[in-house]
Amino acid sequence: MAKFWKPGTEKPRLVEDEDGGVVFFYSSSSSSSSGFGYSNNIESQRRRLPVYKLKDAILFLVENHATTVVVGETGSGKTTQIPQYLNEAGWADGGHVIACTQPRRLAVQSVALRVAEEMGVRLGEEVGYVIRFEDVTTLGVTRIKFLTDGVLLREMMDDPLLSKYSVIMIDEAHERSISTDIVLGLLKKIQRRRPELRLVISSATIEAKSIASFFRGSKKHRGTGDKLEPNTEPAIISVEGRGFNVEINYVQEPVSDYLRAAVSTVIMIHKQKTVGDILVFLTGQDDIEAAVQLLNEEAQSFDKSTGELLVLRLYSGLPRTEQDFVLSPTPRGKRKAIISTNIAETSLTLEGIVYVVDSGFSKQRFYDPMSDIENLVVAPISRASARQRAGRAGRVRPGKCYRLYTEEYYVNKMSAEGIPEMQRSTLVSCVIQLKALGIDNILGFDWLASPSPEAMIRALEVLYSLNVLDDDAKLTSPTGFQVAEIPLDPMLSKAILASNELGCSEEMLTIAAVLSVQSIWISVRGAQKQLDEAKLRFAAAEGDHVTFLNVYKGFLQSGKSSKWCQKHFVNYHAMKKVLEAREQLNRTAQRLGMMLKSCDRDIQAVRKAITAGFFANACHLEAYSHEGKYKTVRTSQDVYIHPSSVLFRVNPKWVVYHSLVSTDRRYMRNVVKIDPSWLVEVAPHFFQFLETSKLSNSTSDFAV
Ligand code: CDP
Ligand code: MG
Predict the structure, then answer these.
(1) Does 584 reside within a domain?
(2) Of all protein residues, whose CA lies closest to atom 19 belonging to ligand 1?
(3) Any domain includes 28
(4) Which of 36, 55, 114, 323 to mutate for ligand 1's pocket (most ligand atoms within 8 Å of CB)?
(5) Is 474 in a helix, a strand, or coil?
(6) Nearest residue by C-alpha to atom 8 in ligand 1
(7) Residue 35: pLDDT above 70?
(8) Structure pTM?
(9) Strands across the sheet with 353-358, in order?
(10) Using a 6 Å CB cutoff, which residues line ligand 1?
(11) Which of 191, 256, 250 is nearest to 217 (CA)?
């Protein structure tokens, strides 16, 4: 492979830092004048990105070091440019592929599309992407492949050394998503077996330092720098962006309602401040929709002198057309207000943002191993996140950030850094994947951040009860290996396997596909009543899962019509995703040797199959409970049926649920009615005392 120092260019200055790691300093102080305005010339746009000046340096480091950590501000070109540089330098020659992972699906699609555009190729050919249930690549043709780190993890099951990749870029590593952490741990192992593999780890913050030291080999080994024996010391390179100053404003008194505070701040900016788009960080689809509606209402009362405000929403799962609109340039004379989740913090680059409104919150996963509940809750962000958010305002010119919390809170109360997702999630999927990769000593695994022992024990218990792990905590054969093969939560995978024996696999695959999309219903604010009525047309007395089957059947009978969907408040885009997911699951099932079969009207078989996967989520109605209070069998907690369920207020005696959400109470979402005798039938070891207690409502003597 060629060296990348061209004669006449400035040689990079390599500086050893105190720990012996090679740090490469580079200051891109020379002026780059991008500013507003969009050039049609993609090539000149590419050259203006801060990362461009480091192209040779990055290629030099990748060639000579097994691991290169690239730190750089959002928008500096890390994601879109580095894979292209690697491709131009020949890393995808000879049938090799350059991989670039993202924690988020939306980011995978959006950057793949952008890179394909820049290279002037059709998406799915030289440049492609893979997310769960969607593979847009061509074998033997695709050279740059974007994928979620979850998908990369799955690929290791078929190809443990990831041998088709010459370079793997783990992007957005600072996010410390659970899959990123696992992938980094595994890549460190793979590197020992494949010295020719190169890793590029990119991060928006100095989190990079701890990641680099994680990759530092135990033995100091300086390779010869040739392709097969690179230096194992990680290199760190920092891309200095052209970030402009951002003026930070705090509220004087704590706000009680961040949503309203965000809305009034947007209105204030729009009325008082000069041109420039506004980016608002809220937490999730619900509060985003609410804010969009409030803003649109306010905008009605603007007088003529106030310019037009385009209120847009941004979150994962947004239909493609809307997403494109968010990313496209603002029409002249108008101002965009983009109301977003955390996704705009670092994953996506939005051009033209001058004002940022930061609620100080994001939706985060929290898992409590004691109650075994994992919830997405609205929680305060860290100072590192707050700084990232503010930085979004300074991309095109000096900007302003409005923090909806006090300076005192920022300085004294906010935690400096977030907790890695690994330490606040259920580990069931993580454990099964590591086991499937032959890593038996999970506690001894080289973790970037150690998971909690309680969460680990709980995960082992769940997998043991599902008969996925045996007494020695090894994957059972075939069940354990089959469950690991299906890209779903192990409980759902287990239900699919059970459906094979119960003769209802067609139905179970449909249910699994529906459960893997966010919601198949259209949620329109203020139209709750119509939605409830529409749901009623499909409602099944047996529960939500059976209701899904009715919707799916109706959709197929309509010829997959979007008109039909609209009429019935069914989300057409979601249904299309269901079809794709089902198709993929179908293929997986066939690979596992399942015979697809329909049970026609024998819905009992379907409910039994669900029970076989979700028996640990069994609940019974409290006797004399007028308000529909249930107790979970395993932990005797109070839970209620969620108002969105078709079984809300129906309250059958025994149910199993798919998931729990906590708001004012713990609500079961997606509930199905069961017969308690099935519990003993499908999981005798789990409910060994159930029979002796004669299915009484006492749960004290249930063994787990
Ligand atoms: O990864 P990093 O945040 O460093 O930057 P990037 O995502 O590679 O973005 C580099 C440039 O490409 C930015 O100026 C973006 O505006 C542009 N870009 C785009 O126009 N469309 C995309 N889907 C992604 C990036
Ligand atoms: Mg990026």
Answers:
(1) yes
(2) 114
(3) no
(4) 114
(5) coil
(6) 77
(7) no
(8) 0.85
(9) 246-250, 399-403, 353-358, 277-281, 334-340, 308-314
(10) 49, 72, 74-81, 110-111, 114, 327, 349, 351
(11) 191
